[in-house]
Amino acid sequence: MSSLKARELTIFVEKGIETKPRYLRYDFNALADFEQINGMGLGQLLTMKAVFGTARAMLWAGCKGDDPSLTINGAGDLVGEFIRAGGTVDEVLGKCFDAAAAQGAIGSPQPEEEGEDSESGNASPPTQKKLKEASKRGGNGSKKPNP
């Protein structure tokens, strides 16, 4: 079990989707699973603006340490239910990135610029502006808006 402190995620409880909070932990195993499921690392995926796949995989990878029964499709179902309940994919990504940054999985907690973090070699978390721009694009990174 990882000694990394998990971050509580309550957005699904707040929308009435679940009755108990989930816990996000982005340790080495979570990052490796994320990379394996997507075929590339988080930094590479962010440059492609693959918002839906990133949200689903980040949620799954972060939660599976606390809930090994959660599948990648189950994580996608949670994100979908959250959006139907009035939430946004940006909120899910924001919570996941906040937890990952706080745990040192990506960049530093307060990056100066988005992109490659020169000290750690990890990708810096995206800014809220970049998350919003990415969510307006198609799931494959095209510049066409989502229908």
Describe this structure in words.
There is one protein chain. This protein is mainly alpha-helical. The chain contains 7 helices and 2 strands, in the order E-H-E-H-H-H-H-H-H. Helix 4 packs across helix 5, helix 4 crosses helix 6 and helix 6 packs antiparallel against helix 7. 34% of the residues are buried.
Main attributes of the structure:
147 residues, mainly alpha, two-stranded antiparallel ribbon, 2 strands, single chain
| Total count of strands | 2
Order of strands in the sheet with the most strands? 1-2
What is the first-to-last residue Cα distance? 42 Å
| Average residue pLDDT | 78
**Class computed from helices, strands and strand pairing:** mainly alpha
List the secondary-structure elements in sequence, H or E. EHEHHHHHH
Shape designation: globular
The level of helicity is 40-55%
Write the layout of secondary structure elements.
Layout: E1 7-9, H1 11-14, E2 22-24, H2 28-38, H3 42-48, H4 51-63, H5 72-84, H6 89-102, H7 128-135
Antiparallel strand pairs: 1-2
Helix pairs in contact: 2-4, 4-5, 4-6, 6-7
Write a concise synopsis of the structure shown.
By secondary structure, the chain is mainly alpha-helical.
